[in-house]
Amino acid sequence: MSESQGLPQCFLGQPFLRHKPERSPWLYCQLFMGMGETEGREAGGIVQKGEEMGKLMVSRFVIGMVGTNCYLVWDEETKEGVVIDPAENGQFILGKCQEAGMTLTAILLTHGHFDHIGAVEEIRRAIQVPVYVGTNEKKLLGDPEMNLSRAFGNSAEVTQVSLVKDQQILRLAGRNWKVISTPGHTKGSVCYYLEEEKILFSGDTLFFESYGRTDFPTGNPKELRKSVVEILFHLPDEVTVYPGHEAQTTIGHEKKYNPLASY
Ligand SMILES: [Fe+2]
Predict the structure, then answer these.
(1) 127: CA distance to ligand 1 center in Å?
(2) 15-262 falls under which CATH superfamily?
(3) pLDDT tens for each residue of 12-58
(4) How confident is the model at residue 44, as a pLDDT?
(5) Cβ-contact 221, 183 below 8 angstroms
(6) Ligand 1 centre from 152 Cα, in Å?
(7) What separation in Å is there between the alpha carbon of 19 and the centre of ligand 1?
């Protein structure tokens, strides 16, 4: 029996839509706009108010052949910031950093799939910054078969990385970023949680009314369910979730409407 059996799977990490009749026109519009893109498109900036360090800015760009959400996050006062999951087209991402006047200080990876790492080396050739990734993701990240890049015709591997552990705190852009280990979509998947700002970057673990598929190398449906229900659903309801694909959501909304809530 395949490990992926037991949970319905969705296409390449795209959401399994639970409420198609109500949600589909907008969601499908987003999905098709994302498919096949290599340049990226702006998906709207979001401003979160910080207490002491000024505003924290979050911008989302949909990039690459499967419409990956790439996020730029920076402090409006100090201009220090990070990029999360640079999917593809490093020049586009670096241009957006420049437009924002942002000083890029780190690359954060939620996991090692090809559609989240495609621009890592291009960015790093331009700017020497650390690349953070979950400690159990190193093997997949450095293997074009496991990270699926070979199957999509662009063998990618990232080897020089800083490994982060569950509950580790990274100090970036003047904020504390807590690493939360969430295996299931891949063994080394992590989420990044800004507790004070109530923001979670969930990668392909948790989506709007959906969750990441588990039938790729190192995927595990039991672990995915555990990560979502026993870890992420224990965060406060008001936490805003920025996923690796599709629209943002909140923990409270997912506790009500995510299919895993009733599994
Ligand atoms: Fe993925």
Answers:
(1) 25
(2) Ribonuclease Z/Hydroxyacylglutathione hydrolase-like (3.60.15.10)
(3) 444 443 333 233 222 322 333 333 344 556 655 544 444 445 689 99
(4) 52
(5) no
(6) 13
(7) 22
Distance of CA 245 from the midpoint of ligand 1 (Å): 9
Average pLDDT over all residues of the chain? 85
Q: What is the pTM of this model?
A: 0.86
Pairing of strands 206-207, 41-49: unpaired
CA of 83 from ligand 1 middle (Å) equals 17
In sequence order, the β-bridge partners of residue 164 are: 134
Ligand 1 midpoint to CA 185 (Å): 7
Instruction: Report whether pLDDT(137) > 60.
Output: yes
| Cβ-defined contacts of 27-33 (< 8 Å, 24+) | 27/208, 27/246, 27/247, 30/62, 30/67, 30/246, 30/247, 31/67, 31/246, 33/62, 33/67
